[in-house]
Every structure is written in C-alpha cells, then in structure tokens.
Specification:
The chain is α/β, with parallel strands linked by helices. It has one domain (about 5-230): Rossmann fold. The protein has helices at about 10-25, 65-75, 100-125, 150-170, 205-215, and strands at about 5, 25-30, 55, 80-85, 135-140, 175-185, 225-230. It has a 7-stranded parallel β-sheet, with helices on both faces. Helix 3 (about 100-125) links the parallel strand 4 (about 80-85) and strand 5. Helix 3 runs parallel beside helix 4 (about 150-170). One of its GO terms (cellular component) is membrane. Pfam families: adh_short.
C-alpha cells in the first residue's frame, strides 16, 4: 500500500480520488483548507480514526502550511511515496483584464503553480527514498491549448505542465515517475456554471479516480507522462 499526500481532497476530483484510494487500503494524508468540509462524508476523520489516515490543514498559498503537512505525514507514516496534486482554482480572467482583476491572476499563479511546486519541493527528499515514487498532477486540457479567452487560467495550467515536465526530468534517476492528467470539462463544482453541455455527458470525477488508482499499480517502466481525456471532440490538439 502506498503512503499518499492528496491536496484538494475536500471536493471534486480530489475527493473522489481520496474516497477510492481509502477503500483500496492506502495510507492517506489529506491536505484541506477547512477540516469541517470533510465532516459527514466518507473522509470524515471521526469515522476514519486510524494510523493510516491523516487530515491536515493545507493552504496552497502558505509555504509553512505545506512544510508542516509534509513533516507531519512523514512523522505519522514513516515514509511518503506519492503525491496527488488536486488543489486548484478557476478564474475567468481575460487577456484584457480589468485593473481590479490583478489579484485573480496572482491567485491563479500562487495556487495552481506555486502550490504544487512548493509541496513537491518539501516532499522531494522523502519521495527520492522510495525508488518507485509517484507524482500525479491534475493539470487540465487548458494546459495543452488555449481555448476561448480564459487567459489567466490557461496561463497557469501551461506553467503547471512545464513544472510536471521538469519534475519528471529531475526525479527520473531516483525512480520518481510523474503523470499529468489533462481532462476537459469534469462534472464538479468548477463546471457548475457551464450551461451549454449536460453534466451527465461530462467526464466524471470517479472515472479520473479510477485512472489514478490504476497508475499506482503500474511499474516504473510503464508510467505514462500525460493522460488526456475529454468529453468533447477536439481536432486541433
């Protein structure tokens, strides 16, 4: 069983992944902004009161929060061999943004890029000891192409994809394998304002959870760097 850090586990894709991996018996350390968000869910720490389950406060914009979470996880599990980065934010910032939207751009950068970067940095020495560590990053199809006018969000996801490539390069010799998962629309709260496409026809969070579960069973020699999935046909990528 793996010893896994999962960010953004209180909702959406992160929550679906955490629930599936919990059922499969992995050691889970969940990083969330508000512990209360997990109450009365399958991830409620009151229900999962064991040495293989940890919930820790995590703010992707706070380096100290990241460091404390990693250290507490190592102290509890005695090792860390997997990170699944699911924390992220969505903003509709356009190329010609208003002056009052500058903070939105800064937040996109801090959460979507620097958050995974810093968390990975803090866990790197532990991952390097495993010889078969895994880093799975929920990037987005917006990290592969810019569609429409979502300039700020797409910018952050392109940068995140670049970060994934560098993590792969840096970690390869120590057995660290990186996979960037790039979905289109997924039926989560992030897509709740999408009216032109039925939620039932979108990719489902539980299916992405199954992909992550399968990745954890593959040997170092067979880990894909990138997995793209989309509920809509795109012919220009």
């Amino acid at each position: 069983m793996r010893k896994i850090l999962i960010s953004g586990a209180s909702r959406g894709i992160g929550k679906a992944i955490a629930i599936k991996l919990l059922k499969e018996g992995h050691y889970l350390s969940l990083g969330v902004r508000e512990r209360d968000d997990l109450f009365n869910t399958p991830l409620d720490p009151k229900i999962n009161n064991s040495d293989s389950f940890l919930v820790h406060t995590y703010d992707a914009t706070d380096q100290n929060s990241s460091k404390k979470w990693v250290e507490k996880t190592f102290e509890t599990f005695k090792s860390v061999d997997t990170i699944i980065h699911c924390a992220g934010i969505f903003k509709r910032t356009k190329l010609l943004f208003n002056d009052n939207e500058m903070k939105d751009i800064e937040d996109l950068w801090k959460v979507n890029v620097m958050g995974p970067w810093i968390l990975t940095k803090h866990a790197w020495k532990y991952l390097s000891l495993s010889n078969s560590a895994r880093i799975i990053v929920l990037v987005s199809m917006s990290g592969k192409r810019s569609k429409g006018n979502l300039c700020g969000y797409s910018m952050s996801k392109f940068a995140l994809m670049s970060l994934c490539q560098t993590m792969r390069n840096e970690g390869w010799g120590n057995g660290i394998r990186v996979t960037a998962i790039c979905p289109g629309w997924v039926n989560t709260d992030m897509a709740k304002e999408i009216k032109h496409y039925p939620k039932k026809d979108m990719s489902q969070a539980k299916d992405i959870a199954s992909i992550c579960s399968n990745l954890l069973t593959l040997p170092n020699s067979s880990i894909p760097f990138e997995i793209s999935l989309n509920c809509q046909l795109e012919t220009n990528i």
